[in-house]
Amino acid sequence: MYSTETEVRVRYSETDQMGYVYYGNYAAYYEVGRVEALRSLGMSYRSLEESGIMMPVLESHSKYIKPARYDDLIRLQIIIPTLPTSRITFEYKLFLEETLVHEGSTTLAFVNMETGRPMRAPEAMIHLLKPFYEVK
Amino acid sequence: MYSTETEVRVRYSETDQMGYVYYGNYAAYYEVGRVEALRSLGMSYRSLEESGIMMPVLESHSKYIKPARYDDLIRLQIIIPTLPTSRITFEYKLFLEETLVHEGSTTLAFVNMETGRPMRAPEAMIHLLKPFYEVK
Amino acid sequence: MYSTETEVRVRYSETDQMGYVYYGNYAAYYEVGRVEALRSLGMSYRSLEESGIMMPVLESHSKYIKPARYDDLIRLQIIIPTLPTSRITFEYKLFLEETLVHEGSTTLAFVNMETGRPMRAPEAMIHLLKPFYEVK
Amino acid sequence: MYSTETEVRVRYSETDQMGYVYYGNYAAYYEVGRVEALRSLGMSYRSLEESGIMMPVLESHSKYIKPARYDDLIRLQIIIPTLPTSRITFEYKLFLEETLVHEGSTTLAFVNMETGRPMRAPEAMIHLLKPFYEVK
Prior knowledge:
Four copies of one chain form a homotetramer.
Chain A: E1 2-9, H1 26-41, H2 45-50, E2 53-54, E3 57-64, E4 73-80, E5 87-96, E6 99-112, E7 117-119, H3 123-129
């Protein structure tokens, strides 16, 4: 299983008048998380799009456990629970210090930008991820 | 069951470089939807907060069926499937003309802003909603 | 001089923890305003882009006079002070009831999307705007 | 004169369908910049608000020189050109490698959150900034 971490500091623009991170802004944190997960694996999502593959989101789920606030430094754990096929799932756990404050997951497709059709995960991605899912 | 509709036009700021509505922006559409649902019922979410009750989101789910694009006029159907208790669920269906392009749901709590503690749905809300859930 | 009006209701997602509209969100209101200004003139910005012309912003200025708050219904006046050349300027005045709460302006270019080069305002736009700038 | 630098990586959520950073999102970069400028000076904007002082924006100006794109790592220079009085001005220069792509400035007030009235810059801030403006 592939798992990595990154950090996100809450911006003022991301708060709302409750004084919390607006619930819709976690989606952008997820995005930062999965891009950094791919980068730490050795892949650039930007290059992927430049090579003609895009990854639209099909489903997302969010669970708001405790609020995050302005200037909080969120530790964001990103997990790819299974090897991607024609879809890839990312799970997210957000921590403030040791406290889990938010959980989410997204499922994305791989789409050939030229034809607009779904496709399987690119070989390069499978190649990089495979070692993390091998039975020992 | 209470159900109502409103419209949202996609803003340029809500698109991303795929040329679609950014997946995180549907949460703001849901919010517009539930505020308008309460308004059409005769309640103002603003007044609710001014009276000391806030409604933080506990969970949300989204299913991206087809993309919505810049300047699209989305027909947004909002459903409250059951009478609220200490929680309220809203379901959302987004249509472009007759085509369902997106589905979502959110569950929110009622919180007493002074004590920070959960509470039951305000009587006024129950009173307005009750007729829609009575067995005929 | 061409001038028109539209309305924008402040969304929860647009507030920040001061309880005001976040200062960066006025730019999206301007955008709604200029798109509606073009629409009421008989032009669609979407069609303009589909025909290969885009209008990137070159400059913007904002003056925050009084705060706008959640659920406020803003009356947004949009003015095109002069006939466009290779650039177009829009001015914005935002009112809550009769009170001016915000002023802004943006200058945009016309760019041929195929060549990436600046161009003059499309003839169709000049044609529609010209009657508003004629000396009587 | 006080000047410092920070970095911001462009998020997917910040792009629009032109494939550029949406023009309204630079305001959030400015905000990140001025918060980091205060932090590197030894002040926390969060603590400032917690102590009852808020800094609403009065004016902002933006000049879009070249587009920034998804995943670009922006080098953000923040300058406080003069010692604050009852107002403070921040200037921003955004670079991609050595190329200046964007310039902006914002003027903010100091407001006593309890009374809602303008006030002078807090002594602690003046104290930290003063050495940078002394004639040598």
